[in-house]
Amino acid sequence: MEQVIVNGLYLGAQYALIALxxxxxxxxxxxxxxxxxxxxxxxxxxxxxxxGRMHWPFVVALFAAAATLAVIGxxxxxxxxxxxxxRSLREESTMLLAAGVAYFLDAAILLLFGEKQHGVPKIxxxxxxxxxxxxxxxxxLVACLAILFIVAFVLMMQFTKPGRAMRAMAQDRVAAQLxxxxxxxxxxxGFALGAMLAGLVGxxxxxxxxxxxxxxxxxxxxxxxxxxIGGAGVVGGAILGxxxxxxxxxxxxSVLHSYGDIxxxxxxxxxxxxxxxxxxxxxxxxxx
Amino acid sequence: MPALLALSDVELxxxxxxxxxxxxxxxxxxxxxxxxGANGAGKSSILRAITGLRRIKKGSVSFEGQRIDGLGPxxxxxxxxxxxxxxxxxxxxxxxxxxxxxxAFSRSDSAAIRRTLDEVLARFPRxxxxxxxxxxxMSGGEQQMLVIGRALMARPKLLLLDEPxxxxxxxxxxxxxxxxxxxxRDEKVSVLLVEQNSRMALRVSHRAYxxxxxxxxxSGLSADLVKDERIQRLYLGGDI
Lengths: 288, 240
Known about the structure:
Chain A is mainly alpha-helical. Chain A is about 75% helix and about 0% strand.
């Protein structure tokens, strides 16, 4: 029992961090970033290259992955999404663009990093063992780092001037503009930040699950699932959705495993029923 | 001395349909000027042209003698023009305090911002009681006070008000009218007031312009316009 809960919390922390990046971009720009999973994969491969192959310190690799993804996110906003938003009156245009970016990144990742699964040396060794709990220390560390990043992000959004400006923008873009918020600049910052969060989680998790070029799509699906559970565009909802999905997965894997690999089938069926009752998710409003 | 704000022969279109055709008006230092007219006459378009939310097609907008048409909204706020938008547009899920702090976004001296916050809270004591409440949960009248306070947080030289009496109880309209007069008098802020409630607008303003389908139909001292027969017939609904 304790094991199931601890596994759920471990998964939940990383999932929440994934969902935060997705929901931030949605809240600020009304863009559903289908390429979120691919950004995660790029983060994973960068840490693999820098830490796993070049043997630089893990922290340096993680930092480099985050910075690279921030730049990629910023460039995507500046040269693709901004121009499309400016020229097109239809919201679908950005969705199609995001899907196109996802396919492009998938192809680029395959070309650059190949199709093999890659892992890296453990960042810390050892396993915590007690009567009813077994947790490898590296998972503890990854979960703690994920929670640290979540807390840092929330504090930034709540208590700094750029954070306040981004919340205001998510709630009423025109009013924010009238307060003097340079909304285009903050769209760029938000997109960079969202991409950075995806890269950060990818870089953290490569130390445990490894990385391969095919997992971008499935990661995006998980990210969207969490945002659907919690409510799109809400920080609290993304965090809640992340922990709920982590817990469901953990419980499902231990309770349902005798029936075969049906955990996600069960999760999606429950999600469909849940969404038909509460289409806006648990906290469906912008920025609680 | 040039006018604080001057619009000269401004034309503005939405998708080839004109909203303003050759509007000229002025707001002088220290004045409260009202813009009255029916729905769709172009009152809000004038404010959009001033704040930079809409590009004008022809003419010019000047503030303190400088052309400002062509500047973006964030640059215009920094020059000292603050806007209270129609429909209030509070940030509904942010606290009253964060809403007010957003008003000071264009300023950077935090000690001075805190002083302005105290002044605004002294002017609207109701806001002080509700600093931590989410703005969207307040009544319409309180939200109107909040957005006026939010605009004052920018320490503007010119305050633009778009239909502040819309959708608030008649008693609150009196409060808002009193606030506008007091702000103009105490803070030396010039005011451009757009209103469908012409009676209220003419009472609080020094001068007024009456708009009809995209151009100025009448203008003059508010005290005279109240007695003007055409104004009474068109905007005040008969006898006062």
